[in-house]
Amino acid sequence: MTQELLIKVFADYAMLPVILIGAYALIFKVPKGQRLTAYSKILMAGLMAYFLAKTIGSIYQPMSQRPFELLGTTAGALFLNNAGFPSDHILLVTAIVAAVWFETKQKLITIILVFLLIAISVGRVMALVHTPLDVIGGFVIAAVSALWYINRKNVV
Question: pTM of the predicted model, to two decimals?
Fold first, then answer.
């Protein structure tokens, strides 16, 4: 497998198993009597993460161009036509990892998802579509949003 293909697999295609594993865990591992509350917290944390990411991204952009543009090369992965802060890929994956951990407490599934989060993070940077700051920004925003709802009992 060539290095470019490996980077593309990590940067783009690793999202699919994260989504599928996360969906499996959240559908089948959240106790039946707690699903409405759990899904409500997940929805609110996700909406807060998205709102914060878009608000912060509209106010603060550390760079006006992505790394591949600065280097005059092509992107090694899919990207949106914006400056890239924070990383939407990492925002989504971190939100899924947090949702699975906080609502299911499934250690093995969470460890697998954390490994995929790290792989996607490294892949996005190596594909030159994000800087490490973009990736860290996506992670921190999603983590803060998830932490906000951990101890919230009456979201519904």
Answer: 0.92
